[in-house]
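Teaching note: in complex prediction, the entire set of molecules is handled at once rather than each chain in isolation. The prompt given to students was simply: 'Predict the structure of this complex.' The entities are:
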Amino acid sequence: MSKIRFSSNILKRLGEELNPGIDKGILELVKNAYDADAESCIVDIGTGEAGGTLTVSDDGDGMDINDIDEGWLVLGNSRKIHKTTRLGRLPAGSKGLGRLAALRMGHKVEMTSVSINDRKNQYSLSIDWDYYDREDLVDDVELTIDSRINEGKTSGTEIKILELRENIHRADIKKLAREMVLLADPFSDVKNSFNPVLIAPEFEDLEKLVQRRYFDDAEYYLEAELSNNKECTLSVKDWLGNVLFSGSMNNLKGPYKTISFRFEIWTFILNNKNFLNRTVTISEIRTWLKDFGGIHFYQNGLRVSPYGDKGNDWLDLNLQRVRSPEERPSTNNTIGRVSVTADESVLIPKTDRSGFIENETFRELHRFCTDALDWMAKQRLAQAEKRRANEKKEVPKALKKTKDKMLSVIINTAEGEDKEKLHKAFTAYDKARQKEADALQNELLLYRTLSTAGITAATFAHEMLGEHLKNGSLYISILKNKIKKETQIRNPEDYLDKLNKLNDTFEAIKIPGQTTLSLIEHEKRRRSKIEVHEHLFKLVDEFQAFYDSRNTNVETNFLQSSVYIYATISAFESIIVNLIVNGLSALEQIHNKTRKIIISTVQLKTDEIEISIVDNGSGITGLDVKDIWLPGQTTRENGTGLGLTIVKDTVKDLGGTIDVRAKTDFGGAKFTVILPTI
Amino acid sequence: MKVHIFDDNKESRDLFVELFQDPNLLVEPVDNPGSNIQEIINSLAGDSFLFSDYRLKPHQYANFDGDEIISIAYNNHIPGMLCSSLSDFDSILGRSIRREIPMIAEIKDVTDPELIYLCNDICIKEFKGEFSESRKPWRTLCRVAEYDSKYDKVYLVIPGWDSKTKISAPLSDFPKEIEKKVREEGFRFYCKVNMGCENPRELYFTDVEIDT
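The expected output is the structure of the full assembly:
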């Protein structure tokens, strides 16, 4: 009979090559101690140098000869999965691959164990990995489990990894120390009976730090508990423990096809104002969050990495914050945990122990957490809006108070003529400030009005294009088809010609709607490399029907080569559209000659392009040239006076300059925009 | 052939019926589409053709949009055409659904029944595996050039098509399993793309291969 056998190389493949890091392997040995109901587990890394010894010892239930033979020496299986231990712990044990990785850190391993069920004997086993390296097959190496009388040792297991292959670096020690400190949920109010210890100064420092528990200083504490897939409770408390918001499944997008669990998150607002009257300083909290921040995952009381490791933002806190910065937590100001009770058949660990396989249970758990975070963000945003509205109400009062105070200082401190001078100067200053405030208020009002006009236009553009104009086009097509088929109509070409003209009119009517929708495409608000002429041609084309209806010829005089700028399409379009519209408006005054606009591009230097727009109108009149950029300045009835302000601001944003000549030989004004190219 | 007209505006439905009048076509407006697309598809006769406007939801005419019913019909080997009033409408659609919608017509081009015959021919040929150059799928390598987190858009470069142009696609076009990876610049994967297509807006991709 034949059978599959394993090459000795498989140990290297499974041990070293599947192992994501030294810390993960050692942590597996510590988890084995937890599964053996140990209360203490001590990891001594010795000098940590190559050739040295690393020892892991625990006071757990230990193993007898059968446990060692049928359990410890069997790789790829765990006898303990699904059964709770004597102390009621749900095993965190792996398939033995992490253990293999740790054991292979040295050339030799010595294991000694005393079982709680057989205290009279002590069992030991030595593994020399170099034997395996010399043999072809794993089965070729025989191992012997020694048995001897126990001389007073309590139950437990000691593993010595001898002749370490490589140095254990400080970074690995720090990582291991952090993982061990966090392993048994040091943040829980219920003390875990498991107490792993690493003999290293880094561990002691971190252990002291973790005990500081700054949770009470968190500005917001979110507690979300999913009790079954259809019910949950949500609450957000402030740092004094007052409930700010509460919610239920109605506030989320449930149901969630996952297990019951609890999600908690503490968010800190790290600014000096918030910490004025507290006993703790910002820097203390920052240090604490730097070492322990992130959203940790605790399964059956033990931490599962890499969730909450440095750089692991598994709930995308930072991504969400980038999208909507206000009132969103980030990994720098947050600590949290997900606590679940579930065995490995529900949340399945990956073979390399780097978290769980993303099955439906995990994905839905993830969705619940992100939905709860969204809910909290929305509540906080609403609160912030309310606060802003209140602050706004308070501004005039505060202003009046400050003004009265200033006047009273002048009255009470200055004498005679000085008093009068100061009073006059202050009144003049106050008037100027008020004028500036009024101007800003007017500008804001104009922007708001225009925004409303834009929103309304965009909303109804869909309606107009999708229904009225669509049906109009269909009526025209039907009539044209009927005329073509009808033999009795005299001069059908005449009817068809008129219908074609009606069709052209419809196409022209569509332009404002399509342009409005096109201007608000979000794609256009993304900064990217754009080709100047491609967009100039597009804009010139889009407005063709307008030029025709206004008897205006638009000539283009563009460079033959491609020129690129780094900008958002909407910014570039804002400049050009506003200048074209400005030109069209100027030409409204011209009656006796052909109206013309010329758009030209010139390469100035290798890194600059000049775009000029000139019309043959009568130039800028009735306004000082330097005032045309000011908001609200217009000579046209119904003009907003914002077009050229937007142009100037946008050109500046793009790192360019704009110049205007009020009157040119061509007739009208010439606007010259210079933009940096890439 | 029986042409079923889906449009949330009754007047438009009736106008399309009139516009498509032809001795070989039986054109019917669908006044109450119901809510289950699969049921609608199952109830259709073998020689059916669907013509649908894109927006069907806003006026509570249906609980699905035109792209959904046309793509599901296509997967059931029922030909169909999507119609829109916007000139650059196809940029709204996802890249994967574009595979199942061979023709998107702009309203100004819908002038007679000929378009129905043309689209029907294209669909029938595609069902048999005969694709035009611009619609034929090819397995090719794609690279993520950029991810726009604000709008969940992925910008891809398909070197076999044009190594200098970035093609945008909504994140929802990708299988859930690789959503995270797709957000990383430089991530590469294979999928099927209509490489013969010249207009970037008409590019589709499908059958994304997940490397586990």
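Point out the following to students. Chain A has a mean pLDDT of 84. The first helix of chain A runs from residue 9 to 17.
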